[in-house]
Structures are given as structure tokens and as C-alpha cells.
Amino acid sequence: MAMLGKRRPKRAPSGVSGLQGRQADTRHAPAPPPEQDVLEIHGLAHDGRGVARAAQGKTVFVEGALPGERVRVAVHRTRKRFDEAHVREVLTPSPERVEPPCPHFGRCGGCDLQHLALPAQRRHKSAVLEELLGRQGITLASPPELLAGAGEGYRRRARLGVKVDADGQVHLGFRARHTHRLVDIEACTVLVPALAAQLVPLHLQLAELEAPRQVGHLELLECDQGVVLVVRQLRDHTGDTRRWQAFAERQGVHLARWLGRDAPDLEWLTPMPSLTCRVPGPAGEIALGVAPGDFLQANAEVNCLMVGAALSWLAPYVDDARLLDLFAGVGNFSLPLAEAGARVTAAEGSPAMVERLAENARATSPGRGPGVEARQADLAAPAAVHELLASTRPEVVVLDPPREGAESVSRALQEHPVPRVLYISCDPATLARDAAHLVHGGYRIVRAAVADMFVHTSHLESMLLFEYTGSARHPQGAPTDG
Question: What start and end residues bound the annotated signal peptide (predicted)?
């Protein structure tokens, strides 16, 4: 059956047949061809998959394989220029292969690098940033600094999918990689302990609902006031609402829900709390007000390291300086830099977060800096970016865009030069693209860092500090300042 549907290889005539052929002398017979499903892994792709080359010369990306390994694979997708495969058996393991700490590894799509030792993960992320910059002709004079925290129990927010199968069984968990299939999760090593402790109770709670199909997903958040649970509910159900309120009381969590299909409204099912999270400032911690739906970095420890790096890198330049913070969110960088002495104009696209940013600026105690002016602007629109740069005439620009990057801002900064630009990125590919615009426009890179925001994944955050040199030139990095 193993050969069913496959072309059988032609066999050279042996000159013998039957039992005589089986008993023939094979001491001088040619060696059998190498196994077609065994590959040598020579590299690691940006997304964490092993890279190999098949016997025919075609590139193969292998999930779960590490550089230096010899593995038996199964190809699950064939493309014109490359194939995609997964490991069936590791024949020769890498010395950097470790036992994944999570029992769901290999099924859950969340943490795809748990089989790689943590120091090697971080070296890989630094190499990815340098390689992508190099493709744009930009060379860093020294490796980027590393901003890293704990390897487990770091994630303070999570979104859990909910699905009811054909048998009526309710499932709760994360998606499998590259699919919509849900993997039931009852333990998670990367969630902060307060969130991980809710997984089993939530499984039991969902099983008790009368209308579980009306639940789209669940959001969990840890902040200064404890755990917040937000239920995405498609339609109201009075009995289940009471069940959720009883759950919140038993578990000691704050409870809200997004109710409705197309434009859901946020409703609190327990008394509405005043939620805050903390970031470092020159004079101590700063409390930032947040609400469900606001963007909040998942790793509080690494976020604090990034804010600290921004304060340190910009310390010589921000005292009484005009600073424009783009994609400012609720003030993650704006408020600490204002406390450091900058006169900050903070722009954000989301009206709700602009309102929260303004509230946070007003709530900052007197005497902790000149303050922050909050503005709402479409930062993907070139006209809006040009207007901001022209009206504020900043001496420092800080930008922390989403994955799409900030190409409009980078191009505008060529026409409106600024002495210094601090670019915080969650996607190294769009960062490299935008960095090329800046370097072509006369900027040079003077500091670089990689922040390991999502440990055990291929995702990385980066920080680049640019200095305007006054003359455009070919992309080329510059020696770091420190």
C-alpha cells in the first residue's frame, strides 16, 4: 500500500530471477540512493523554520528543525520555488535543541521556538534585524543591544478563541499555526500566573452556559487592579449574563463584555474599575490609564526596558526640546519623555486612545514635566504627517507604528529633517524599508536594540535611533555612540 499511486522505479535487469536473484552476491552492488525525506538543515528562516535544500536543489522550509540537524521530514505543501515540510524524526539533534516547556508545543500556534535554547533564540532575532537592514544596504557597526526579561510567565494579555463543535462540546484555546483550528489550552507557560490560573475555571464556566455559541472569544488582561476578563458576546442572554457575573465574583476578576455583532458596545458587568499599568519615568513610576480595546504591550517587563532605553538614549537631547510622538497610544513613551523635560505633542489615530492619552496627561502630577498635548491624526495620510511636522517643528520624533510600519512618516522626514528620530518597530521588515528612506534622506543610525517582547516566538521588537547628518547618501550604518 505504501507504493499505491506512486510511479515505481525501473529496475535494471539482473540476469537472474526468482529465488536465485534474492540469493545473488550483492557485495559489489551500488549503494542505495539517499533517503529522499532526510534533509540537512543549514539555516533558520526569519519565521523560525529550518532551511534545507532538497536533492534537486529546491529550498525546503522545515517546521521544528534547527540549523545543523539531520531530520526526516514530511512535505505538506509544494510550491513553485520552495516546499514546506515538518519534522517527522530528528536523526541528529542540534546542541541548542531543548525540551519545550509547554505540553501544547507543536499543536498550539503560539510559541514556535520553544525547542530552541533561549540564548540562541535571541541571537537569531538580532541576526534577523541585521540581515534585513543589510538587504537595504544598511550595516550596523556593532550588534544591536539586547533588551530581554523572563523566559516564562511574561504575557499580561491574551485573546482566547471559543468554539462549539458539532457534538456540542465547547473548546477554549489558541489557534493552531496557519489554521483556524482551535487547540484546547488548559495550561500556558508564557501567560502571567494570574491569567494562567483562569484557564481551567474558564473551561468549566463555558461548559455551564446555556448559549455558548453566542460567545465569540475571551480577552484576559492583567493590570495594577488585578485580572480583567472581557467576553465577546454576539447576543444578550440573561441567564448566561448572571452566570458570568457569578464567575467574576468567585474568581475575583473585573468583568466586561463587547455586545453585538458588527459594532459591539463595551459594557461592564461588574463595577467599572479605573484600570492602570505602570511605566518608568525619570522621577519614578508613571501610572497610565487603560481600557479594554486599547493597545498595550503584552510583556510589561520588556516594555519597561524599552521605555528606559528611550529615556537613556534621548536624555542629552530632550530637556525643553520640542518632541513629536507618533502612534502614541495612551502615552507609553509620551508621558515619560515629558517628565524628562520634553515639550511633547502626541498624535494617535484611535479617537478613544487619544481621549485616554489626554486623560493620562492631565492626571500626571504637577511638576513632572511640561506636559503632553494629545492630537488625533491619520498617520498613514501623507498630508496629515506633513501638517504635524510643519506645525510642531520638532527637534525629536518618536514613532511606534503597527506592523505596517510608517512609510508616510519616513518619507515626510526626508522633506522635513529632524535632528533625531527614535523608531520603535514591531516588524523588522517594514522597519528596514523605512530605515532605507531615512538613510537615503540624510540620516544615520547611531543606536540599535532588539527587544525580546515575545519570548519563544520568532516575533521581535526593534529600536533604532537616527541622527540627521544634513546630506543624503547611500544607505550605510554608522558607529554607535556608546
Answer: none
What is d(CA 159, CA 221) in angstroms, rounded to the nearest whole number?
9
Report helix, strand or coil for 301: helix
pTM: 0.87
Q: Is residue 111 part of a domain?
A: no
Q: At 481, is the pLDDT very low, low, confident or very high (cuts 50, 70, 90)?
A: very low
Which percentage of the chain shows pLDDT scores above 90? 82
223 annotated as belonging to a binding site for a ligand: no
Q: Is 102 annotated as a binding residue?
A: yes
pLDDT digits (tens, 9 = 90+) for 153-178: 999 999 999 999 999 999 999 998 77
Closest CA to 355 of 338, 375, 336, 335: 375
* CATH label of the domain that carries residue 227: 2.40.50.1070
Residue 426 annotated to the active site: yes
- Write the DSSP string, 181-249: -EEE-S--SSB-HHHHTTHHHHHHHHHH-S-GGGEEEEEEEEETTEEEEEEEESS--HHHHHHHHHHHH
My answer on whether 383 and 461 are in the same domain is: yes
DSSP string, 308-373: HHHHHHHTTT-TT-EEEEES-TTTTTHHHHHHTT-EEEEEES-HHHHHHHHHHHHHSPTTSSS-EE
Residue 141 pLDDT class (50, 70, 90 cuts): confident
Q: Is residue 295 marked as binding? A: no
Q: Is 304 annotated as a binding residue?
A: no
Question: Domain of 239?
Answer: 157-268
Name the domain count of the chain: 3
Q: Domain check: are 257 and 342 in the same one? A: no
The three-state secondary structure class of 134 is: helix
**Domain assignment of residue 252, yes or no:** yes
Shared domain check, 202 and 333: no
Please check the confidence at residue 478 and state whether its pLDDT lies above 90.
no
The amino acid present at 482, given as its one-letter code, is: G
Dihedral (C-alpha) 83, 88, 91, 96: value to the nearest 10 degrees? 80
332 annotated among ligand-binding-site residues: yes
Contacts of 283 (CB under 8 A, 6+ apart): 339, 368
